[in-house]
Structures are given as structure tokens and as C-alpha cells.
Amino acid sequence: MDSAIAADEARNRADWKVGVDIGGTFIDFCALEANSGRLASLKVLTTPEDPGAELMTGLTLLAEREGLDPTHMTRFVHGTTVGINTIIQRKGAPLALFTNAGFEDVIELARLRMPDMYSLFCSRPDPLISRDMVFGIPARMRADGSETKAADMAAVERAVAAAKANGAQGIIVAFLHSWRNAAQEASVKCAIARLAPDLFVFASAEVWPVIREYERSSTAILNGYVHPRVSGYLTALEERLKSRGVPARPMLTKSNGGLMNAAEGKHACVNMLLSGTASGVIGAAWLSRQAGEDRILTLDIGGTSADFALIIDGEAQFGTGELIGEFPLHIPSVSVSSIGVGGGSIASVDAQGVLRVGPESAGSTPGPACYGRGGERATVTDAMVVCGWLGHSEMAYGQLRIDNGLAQRAVGELAMRLGRPVEQTAQAILDIAVSEMFVEVEKLASRAGVDLREFTLMPFGGGGPMLGAFLARELGMKRVMAPRRPGVVSALGGLVADLRGDFIRTVFSPLSGTSLPAIREAFEALAQEGRDWLAAQGHDAAAQLNLSCDMRYIGQSYEIEVVLSPEWLARGDAAAIEQAFHRTHEQLYDFHDPDGEIELVNVRLSAVGAGPALSFPETAEIGVPASPARRLLVYTGLGVETVDLHDRQALVPGSTFQGPAVVVQEDTTFAIPAGVQARVDRHLNLLLTFVE
């Protein structure tokens, strides 16, 4: 009897799953009580002076408002910008680089490419490790993995002493051909640990064992550069959660859209540099699948930046070479394009009298002028207030009240310098912000070879709904879909994300029937590595193993990734692999060479452990016109117009209305231009259709 009661109590016990995402201005919370399906969300202003304190504030507010009991939290997923902000602000650890003697210029030479070949004023960023902190160690490994010269340990000892004297906190070891044989790097790492146990050490092959010394070295450097701050932050996070009695093992969102545990994040820091932007795309992909939308352009606008990504067939797109500040990231990540235009982006007039917007942001402190937190410079948010689109309800779940007078004053100072009316100046700020996003999105569409008129725009983040419909109109897109809680989509992404680990092994081999056994052996080794990784994350269910190869025609300098079927390897079907390569090459470059010899460079494997199967309730559409709460005066660019204001909570599935209109809700405000038909679907998404 007692056991039956205990089992019944366990079934009725609350089961909270919480996703958290920290941006430049707000930290977002998405909390799901799994037994009832009740979803709670929240935004809290960040505390740059004490990163992590806002997390405790948010948990306290959720407990007070929603009854969240931290001791009943079975899943906690966290996305953070600590790593990427460390790189952008160049506040990382002082590092030394140990490389082969004669190759000390590897990170300065890079790929001998300028970031913008068409700019006369383009310059390359200064390396994260200065030249005087790069030490050449006499050692050499051949490309076949055989050693021709053992590492000179006396030189290592001298280099360690010099690195410490110059203030290094950590050392990166990156030798030639360590992707083939990592023994030299490992021996030097052991020697450094013995000589200087107070320094942390990362070897390039253990971070990302890929061919090409610059890519491997730079990835290891990014990992070491952020390591102390990320490790310290995560340690404090674990302690804070423990103090609240949270039993869930903290998980982190990764750049590849998956998850890993916080303990791994302390040393595999490079894997979480794009965690926030990636989890937003994963959340958007999940919402798009729920709504039956298979081609989505995401628009995530926060306080500092606007991020764009494509979702095709309901799945996020992946790639390598995403920029972290000024530096490329060579591990797999969700493909996201970013631009420094957000709600807090500051508008200014340059020396030539030209109005500019961003990339400088007001952040959360002091924030836009209209927040009343000390900001005095006009931002995109202030321009929205001056035009009348924003400021008709409390913002950020009641934490902010908009001061129209402060916004008028800030924009008015720019208007005086430009000699234009305040409303026209505010509209010009919005037009510039939208035009800069337009340029970036067009680049993304060109690279992907897609027609955006076939896509639906999904705006989210606190600022996405403010500008999303205007951007869609300029791009010629016909549909916009805004989820019920757009302000916390990135936090939702953490809730629905899977565990995902990426593994790579470089093998140079021509594609032929005789080479397949070696390739199959490499995949089997990676598969075991992937299963072991999932087990270390606490995943004991079935694993999904995704296989691919980096391949090229012999003589090409760079390769393309080709998805493989395990059956092709099992039956030794080299012809099927060859045809897959030709199809992929044709798709990307519009041609292929059926007689060309093919070479395999890298084999890749993604090990995926499915996350919890979550679903939100649906409601049948009733199809009734929405009744506006009141009417407003808004400057639309053509003049002052009277528009309807709708409360999102009053809109039920099937509600319809027309633009221009304003929709207010707890986490954002939706600005809807004229010529739009709006409808709420059964998932409570707000769907906009541009009328011809």
C-alpha cells in the first residue's frame, strides 16, 4: 500500500523543465511543467557586472509568479554568450603557442586572405596570441604519422619559462600533422604539466583533430582563450543551482544545435561559442515543424544584433567557418549570419552628416533612453517609440515601462543635427536598420542559392517582431509567422534540443572499392567514440549516428561534405558514394565531372541522443474577427495614421484582423504594416500574409 501511494505521489509530482538563454540585454526563461503542459516564460535584464546573478533572479521570479519549485526541476538547459563576448571584447586569457620551429608565423599567415577583398581599407584582425608569445619547438612529424625528429624537451623547458615570465596563463600546443599522430603534442603537453602545473594546456589534436594546421591551431586557440572565464562561469553556475536545490544536471547548448553537460563545457569551451544563436534556430525549427512550415528564414533580433538562418524541410542548416567576432570557427555549427543591428543599436550622425545605426549597442546598462536607466543616446527601440509602434504596455514581463519623453529627447538631438522633424528622423533610423538587414539576408540567400519568396519569415527575440514584417515586405516575402512567445524562442530551443556530439578523423584515400574497408574502420571507431560520449552525458537510450565524408576531385584544394548511408559502407558500394558526391557537387556548383577521380579527406560522425518528446496543446480555430483593445496614432513613414492595438492574450485561434496594427504581449511588441492580413492558427502562431 505504501509503495502504491509513493508511486502515485511520484506521478503527481511537478516535473519542471527549464531552458535559459542569456543575450546582451535580457536573459530569457522558458519553463515547462511536463505533467500539465503548462508553459511559463520570463525575461530579466542582464547584470554584466555579475554574470549569472540574473539567473537566480529569474528563478526567484518564476517561483513567485508560476510556482516553479527548483527541487522539482528535472531538466535545466543553459545557453550563454560568455565565450563569444570574451572573444569580441578581447578579454580572454593571455596565451602562449608552442608550434614547430620554423612555423612560428602560422596564425599570422593564416590563409593569406583578406576578410573583404573588395575593400581598400580592409585589415586583418590582430591574432589572439602576439608574435612574442609564439615559441618554435624543434620537432617534426611526417604527413604519414612517422616521427623524424622527437620534440626537444630542453627547448620546451626554456619556452615554458619564457611564457610564464611573459604572463601566460595557458599554453596551446599545435604541431604539424598531429591529426595523423598526436603523440608529439601529447608528450609536450605532459612535459608542460610537469614543469608548470599552474598553467592550463590544450593540444590541438584533442580539441579538433582535423587536417590543415591553421584551422586546427586557431580552433585550439579559441578554446584556450575563453577557457578561464567559461570554466569559472560554469563552476559558479553549478554552485548557484546546487544552492537552490536543483537536482537536474545542468546542460549547455552547443554551437552545433545540440547539448552537452556543464562539466564537459569547462574544457570543451569552443563547442559552446555560438550556443545562443544556435539554440534560437533549433527552437525555430521545432516550432516550424509543429506548424507544418518547411521553409523558414529566421530573424532573431536582440539588444545587440540581428541573426539570420535558413530552415529547409524543417531542419536547421549546418556548416563550418562561422565567424566568432573576427575569427573563423572550424567546428560544425548551425549556419547563422549576424549583423550588429539590434533593439539597442545606437544611432549617430558621423562627421559627414550621415545618419548611421550600430554596431555599438546600449545593452542593458544603460540601455535605450526610453528604458529610463540612464541611456541618453537614441537607439532603434527609441525610434520605434517615437513613431508610436512601441510603448503602449509594460515590457519584459512588467520589468520595464517606456518613457516616451526620454525617447523623444534622444531622437530629437539627432533630428536637430540633421535638420529634420523628429518623426522623420526616427523613421530614417528604422529604414536604415531594415536596409542593413536586407543586405545581409540577400548575401545569405545568394550563398544558399534559394529564392526567399518561397520562404516564410519567422521573427523572434525581443526585437524580431518589431521589425520583422517590414523586412519581409522589403524582401518580397509573402508570409510571416510569429510564435506565441517570440521573446523566448532561444530558451525554448534548449528545452527541445537533442544531445549532439561531432567527431572527425582525417583519412587521405582515393574513393574505390579497395579503400572502403579502411573508411568503414574509421567510421566504426568514430561510432564507438560517439556512443561513449553519449554515455558520458548520461544518455542510455538508442543513439542516432549520422555519417558524412569531406570529399573532392583530386587536384581540388577544398572539399565538400557529402552525407552517406551506412548501408553503402556495409555492402561496399563505392558507386553509390560516388554518385552522392556528384549530386552534391552539382547542387552546390552547378556542374560535376563524371570522369573525375574522387578523394576522401575527412570522415565525420554526429552522435545524437534524442531529447524529451515535448508537445504543446492545440486549439481548434473558430474564425472570428478580432476586436481591438483601442486605437493609436502611429507615424508609418507616409504620415500619422490611426491603427488598431490588439492584446495577444485576447487573440484566440482563428482570430483575424488587418494591418496596420500593433499587437502587444508580455515579451515583445508586434508592428504590422498596411497591406497585411493577420490570422492566429491552432498553435497560437500569428500568421501574416501580404495582400497583393
UniProtKB/TrEMBL annotation:
User: What name appears for this protein in its UniProt entry?
Assistant: Hydantoinase/oxoprolinase family protein
Checking Pfam families in the record gives: Hydant_A_C (PF19278), Hydant_A_N (PF05378), Hydantoinase_A (PF01968)
* Residue ranges constituting the Hydantoinase A/oxoprolinase domain according to the UniProt record: 216-500
* Segments forming domain Hydantoinase/oxoprolinase N-terminal: 17-193
Mind giving the lineage of the organism this protein is from? Bacteria, Pseudomonadati, Pseudomonadota, Alphaproteobacteria, Hyphomicrobiales
The residues covered by the Acetophenone carboxylase-like C-terminal domain are: 518-683
Please report the organism this UniProt entry assigns to the protein: Mesorhizobium montanum
